[in-house]
Amino acid sequence: MPKARYVLVAGNKRAIGISAASGLALALLLVAALALASLPAYASSTAAASEPEQITREYSYRTDEPQPQVDESVTEAGQEYQLVSVSEPEVDASFEPEKRVFTRETSLVVGVSEFDAVVDTLPESIHVDEGSFVGDIPLTGYVAEPTYRSEAAQADRSTAFYGLPDNDARQIPGYYSFWLRSDSYLGAEAWVSLRLLDVVFERDGGDPGRPVSFTAYATYRGVERWLAVDYFDVTATYEGEVASSVGMLVIKAVYEHTPPPLPVPGPVPGPTPGPDPSFPLWPIVWASAALLSLALLLIWLLVLRFNIRLVRHGAGGASTVAKARVSVSGGEAVFRVPDKVMLEDGSRYSLHLKPRLASQAGVLAVLYRGRRIMEAPLAPMIRLDMTSLMARMTPGDEVMQAAARAARRDDD
């Protein structure tokens, strides 16, 4: 019976402790507000002082142009600013120079025998220097135009005539056509008729019982004409992009505007002493200490104090009977029901976890009077299995349960 009453008293003590902490937080907040309220006079006096305002203007110009004249003063937003400094010229890295495509051709006459050697030694690039555009452009190709000459030479061609009945030269044609080179175009051939120059007969066979026959070997002669390359006109083409050497420079001018001074008040009539112009530091120290204490207290109340609650659901509604702070270690968090808390058979209980704890991976083990009464995965709310709990209780625990129920009836 006394223990059951103690549980209720302990619950009230926690409530009283939280209320006292809340009262202390409100008191500290009020103290901070009063301390900060003493600062407006100083803030107003310092706000009246104005620092000089500065603006920067950039002057850009090409490297082939003279440096521009910097204005001694400028006006912006109705305020006049005076020049205070000018920087040294700097290269504008964001400027892209102008680019232009150049094409150049070179021509030369090359003989047939030296054509390959000359072509292989053509320069891979040539230099361009035109105004501000200076650079090299690469070889993109070449064209070789041949120049031909016509040549002629004596042409002798031979042929044979087989199976002649005799060796009479009159049966041999006086002209015979052959394929010869032609000068109609390079590499052309033509069917050309040549005149008989000579003929030689050779007797075939001679075996008994076979007729006699002859073979005539005739030679024909004529003129063969053809085209030959005399030399090559070689034209090499160079083409590429060249960037201008003209860049962009920037100088930065800093201008400053100083607000007009505030009017000086006249002398105050009479010997009335004015307020002490010195500003005490104790209000700032006081306010800072109060705000720091308030922040630490709120962190302790809202974050560090507990992250799991044991809630009893009875006829009179839900009430928190125990709070604790647990952590996950090795995939398990352990919640020990305080010894002064009596779990009653007729009531329902649930465990409520804060989001940071409930979102972790692992299980929650519940210990009651030294016994592991249940395990469940971490979740925002976990219900206690009272059937499993009652099955594990000893007779001594049942006596304590009855005492707890009787104490609750007395309080009701």
Beta percentage is: 35-45%
**What's the average pLDDT?**
79
Enumerate the spans where pLDDT stays under 50 for 5 or more consecutive residues.
1-20, 40-48
> If helices are DSSP runs of H or I spanning 4 or more residues, what is the number of helices?
7
SSE pattern, N- to C-terminal:
HHEEEEEHEEEEEEHEEEEHEEEHH
According to DSSP, the number of beta strands is 18
From the alpha carbons, calculate the radius of gyration and give it in angstroms.
58 Å
Describe the structure.
Among the domains are: 93-250, no CATH class; 306-411, no CATH class. Strands 5, 6, 7, 8, 9 and 10 form a six-stranded antiparallel sheet that branches. Strands 1, 2, 3, 4 and 11 form a five-stranded antiparallel sheet that branches. A four-stranded antiparallel sheet has the order 13-12-15-18. A hairpin with a 2-residue loop joins strand 6 and strand 7. Helix 1 packs antiparallel against helix 4 and helix 1 (2-37) packs across helix 7. It has helices at 2-37, 40-47, 115-120, 282-304, 355-358, 386-392, 395-411; strands at 53-62, 73-76, 79-86, 90-91, 99-111, 125-130, 133-164, 175-181, 189-204, 213-243, 248-257, 308-314, 317-324, 332-337, 348-353, 363-368, 371-377, 381-383. Residues 1-20 and 40-48 have low confidence and may be disordered. By secondary structure, it is an alpha+beta fold.
